[in-house]
Design goal:
This protein is an alpha+beta fold. Helices cover 23% and strands 38% of the residues. The chain starts with 7 loop residues before the first strand and ends with a helix. The model has no long low-confidence stretch (mean pLDDT 94).
């Protein structure tokens, strides 16, 4: 199973930062088991949403030549639960400590101005064409950013 955890991208500054939205809906299957009769979005899926958004930043910044591949989570903190009906605001920024071969990012997930998760993570870029159809991903990115709609 593959989870696509960014429902929309609301801002990109190439090579620097990206912002997106994840809407949590009751029908998502991971809520059935986490936790039974008390559904919350798993914190690690919030982290995954930040990493996926980082991939879109790398793609948009490289004319869809590169994607981000996570290698290490340097730090992460979770501050509360994200529940069905929440709209999670995601923000990722390239750290000044980044190097061309080892990209470092910081990310934050918030609901109604309240921090739910934060992380610093690192990884490398890999050729996007090795993992996805580039034209299809450009169209999907256009949908996520609402370009041309």
């Amino acid at each position: 199973m593959r989870y696509l955890l960014a429902d929309s991208i609301i801002g990109v500054k190439a090579g620097e930062k990206i912002r997106g939205i994840k809407n949590i809906v009751m029908s998502e299957d991971f809520l059935e088991y986490h936790f039974p009769r008390n559904p919350v979005m798993p914190g690690m899926l919030l982290l995954e949403a930040l990493v996926q958004l980082t991939g879109w930043l790398e793609a948009a910044s490289s004319d869809f030549r590169n994607w981000f591949l996570l290698s290490k989570v340097r730090s992460s903190r979770f501050y509360g639960f994200s529940l069905p009906g929440d709209q999670v605001e995601l923000a990722v920024e390239l750290s000044p400590r980044s190097e061309p071969d080892n990209r470092v990012y910081t990310g934050i997930a918030m609901v109604e101005g309240k921090k739910k998760a934060s992380a610093e993570f690192e990884g490398e870029t890999l050729p996007f064409e090795e993992i996805e159809d580039i034209d299809g991903q450009r169209r999907f990115f256009s949908l996520l950013t609402r370009d041309g709609i």
